[in-house]
Write a structure and sequence with these properties.
This protein is an alpha+beta fold. It folds into 3 domains: about 10-120, Orthogonal Bundle (Butyryl-Coa Dehydrogenase, subunit A, domain 1), CATH 1.10.540.10; about 125-230, Butyryl-CoA Dehydrogenase, subunit A, domain 2 (Beta Barrel), CATH 2.40.110; about 235-375, Butyryl-CoA Dehydrogenase, subunit A, domain 3 (Up-down Bundle). The chain is built from 10 helices and 10 strands. It has helices spanning about 10-35, 40-50, 70-80, 85-100, 105-115, 230-265, 280-305, 315-335, 350-360, 365-375; strands at about 120-125, 140-145, 150-160, 165-170, 180-185, 195, 210-220, 225, 270, 275. The chain is globular, with a radius of gyration of 21 Å. The chain binds flavin-adenine dinucleotide. Flavin-adenine dinucleotide (FAD) binds near residues 133, 201, 209 and 363.
Length: about 375
Amino acid sequence: MHRDFGLSEDQREIVAAVREFVSEKAAPAASGYEEKHEFPRDLFRALGEMGLCGIPYDERYGGAGQPFLTYLVVLEELASGFCSLAVSLSVHHLSGFGIHRFGSDALKEKYLPRLFSGDWLGAYALSEAGSGSDAAALRTRAGRTDGSYRLTGTKRFISSAGEAELYLVMARSGGEGPKGISSFAVERGFEGLEFGKREEKMGWHASPMRELIFEGCAVPAENLVGDEGQGFAIALAALDSGRLGMAACSVGLAQAAFDAAVGFARERRQFGRPVIEFQGLQFMLADMATQIEAARRLYREAARLNDAGGDYSVAASMAKLFASDTVMRVTTDAVQVHGGYGYMQEYPVERYMREAKAFQIVEGTNQIQRMVIGRSLSG
Ligand SMILES: Cc1cc2nc3c(=O)[nH]c(=O)nc-3n(C[C@H](O)[C@H](O)[C@H](O)COP(=O)(O)OP(=O)(O)OC[C@H]3O[C@@H](n4cnc5c(N)ncnc54)[C@H](O)[C@@H]3O)c2cc1C
């Protein structure tokens, strides 16, 4: 309804170009990639050519020098047409974020231009089989040897694994707890890094997920991102911005489900008239529209807080929590509005509903978001 409200002229132009890309290229290709379980590398490259793989970053490294808000609005648009593509760009952002904010000049010069041009895809590896919500309990070891670190252990549930050329990996270089964790930039081709079999998921099929298996993988010491022991802080800082990415993607997907529901309800006739004329359905659609609008404003305000240099961590958790619960509710109701047709694969809303669920789980489950918000209240 008010998708462009409050955006600058510059941002509106970028959004218009992305909308055209989504309607002409990304959305028509989405179901094909989802069915084939194939990462849309050509579309990701096209994003790079449009300057969209490093939107909020320094132009010196090939970024677009735009506010963080611009990046999120682009994600929202992409997710409305092809959720897995938007999610992959958001994961890509997590790896670039860590290196851009905390990496040495040499690391930035080496990796950021490749990431921001879209030549390389980036990924983010924090989770392990035994450490999800309690991420600081991770066990992958990074032992220091002459001139390098040797990584040993297994990372679980890693989006873009196998497909990505660069991984921001959190591993334990010191003792127990968060202060023993460091971050590393790990190339796909480093010896000792293998990939597990592809996970079969409920949705996001075009976003491949595998384990990263490190067997004494030698990572040059200069690929340490930030300082030793700073890795968990880096991981959390990346997650703050990533949570806003998940919120923006949730809003885009919810919008797509809502638009499909309205379109269907205007066409479908029962009892001699379009079903949208029944107040029972209108009220459902009115709630969906209101929730989407509220979620959009939450993530955009949090982005503005970030762009203004404020502490946006709690605002990001609120936006992620609310937007992902919204997309779950809205996609479920969109299926309901379609009646039996909504349950059929011929219509897109059943896919949207499956895709929505992941947003309540990734980058901190919604229980963890409530924990972050709750902790901020206890002072
Ligand atoms: C589609 C998808 C993509 C992903 N991509 C990546 C990726 O690219 N990189 C990466 O590192 N990880 C990734 N993950 C992993 C994701 O971050 C974890 O799944 C998530 O953090 C939850 O961890 P877990 O699955 O181990 O669940 P657990 O932590 O075992 O949680 C189980 C349940 O317990 C609840 N719970 C746990 N602790 C508490 C608490 N203190 N209070 C209340 N409730 C609690 C949780 O909310 C959940 O309901 C991905 C996951 C999915 C599903």
